[in-house]
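Narrative of accomplishments. A recurring question from our advisory board has been how the design workflow behaves on a single, concrete structure rather than in aggregate. To address it, we present the structure tokens for one chain from the evaluation set, followed by the sequence designed for it. No filtering or post-editing was applied between the two.
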């Protein structure tokens, strides 16, 4: 398969459009008490606001075991016209904690779960067991994931995270699906790339989420030269730094030749930060406030690369021809 897998079906790369590479429509984590995103009507309204500000597609980056609602995401996508790529995989250990059913699984078992989401469709709700009811889209079709996710701690890859990386590698080798990795505070990027490479995932298929939490353009240019996609998703986080820091970093990395590896999202990810849940600044901040400044700072050509060309290239499934046992995602 050479296409992008959304919750409503597969698209050619040219059909994706302006893409926010990292958001969460649903998310429930013990690390974020009181910040649950768990209401379809409100999350749908937030998605509609993102679409209304000119964004045409997004990646819902919530992996297994953290309150995903695949059927609701598919309904929201159909209702709003916002194309949504759903995520499978797992986050860093702290988002689950001791005793969670997911953290006790072997790498092989995790990989089979991830592969099921990619090829056959996600369950209505994540949980232990093998025969979970399947999520169905508005037309009764399976709701399939289109991207794999792993996560690490701050300069730390624990035993669970290593099993997830192994499982992500196994699922990638079978499908060619793209990979996203949560880097806590932007740390350990090269170490993660090395761990994934050992599992058969080349840097050119990996998006390094939150790399902008360490806004170091020299480091970013090195990572881009290694082939990795750089996930900038920190607009409106003014307690850390102003948006101007991210804009300057984007511009400098592009000037050093990394413009074709940049991705942009909001990662708003909190009830207290979603307008539809009573917070701010909301998903629309990206389109209403940040993108006009990016366009003014760097021009329309880089904006098109960051929002259209780069996410389409990253999200397109490509089965590695040299990998034994590789199979088409269409099966």
């Amino acid at each position: 398969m050479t296409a992008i897998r959304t919750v409503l079906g597969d698209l050619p790369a040219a059909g994706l459009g302006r893409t926010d590479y990292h958001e969460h429509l649903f998310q429930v984590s013990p690390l974020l008490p009181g910040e649950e995103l768990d209401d379809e009507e409100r999350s749908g309204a937030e998605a509609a606001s993102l679409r209304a500000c000119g964004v045409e597609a997004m990646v819902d980056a919530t992996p297994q075991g953290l309150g995903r609602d695949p059927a609701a995401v598919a309904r929201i996508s159909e209702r709003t016209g916002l194309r949504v790529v759903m995520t499978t995989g797992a986050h860093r250990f702290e988002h689950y904690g001791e005793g969670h059913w997911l953290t006790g699984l072997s790498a092989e078992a995790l990989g089979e779960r991830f592969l099921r989401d990619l090829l056959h469709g996600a369950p209505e709700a994540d949980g232990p067991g093998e025969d979970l009811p399947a999520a169905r889209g508005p037309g009764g079709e399976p709701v399939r994931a289109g991207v794999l996710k792993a996560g690490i701690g701050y300069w730390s890859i624990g035993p669970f995270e290593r099993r997830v990386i192994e499982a992500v590698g196994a699922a990638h080798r079978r499908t060619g699906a793209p990979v996203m990795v949560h880097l806590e505070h932007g740390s350990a990027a090269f170490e993660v790339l090395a761990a994934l490479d050992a599992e058969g995932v080349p840097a050119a298929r990996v998006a390094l989420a939150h790399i902008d939490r360490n806004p170091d353009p020299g480091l970013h240019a090195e990572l881009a030269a290694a082939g990795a996609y750089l996930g900038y998703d920190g607009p409106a986080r003014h307690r850390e730094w102003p948006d101007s820091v991210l804009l300057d970093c984007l511009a400098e990395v592009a000037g050093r030749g990394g413009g074709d590896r940049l991705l942009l999202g909001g990662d708003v990810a909190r009830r207290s930060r979603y307008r539809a849940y009573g917070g701010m600044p909301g998903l629309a901040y990206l389109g209403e406030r940040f993108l006009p400044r990016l366009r003014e700072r760097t021009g329309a050509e880089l904006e098109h690369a960051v929002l259209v060309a780069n996410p389409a290239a990253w999200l397109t499934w490509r089965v590695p021809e040299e990998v034994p046992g590789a199979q088409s995602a269409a099966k």
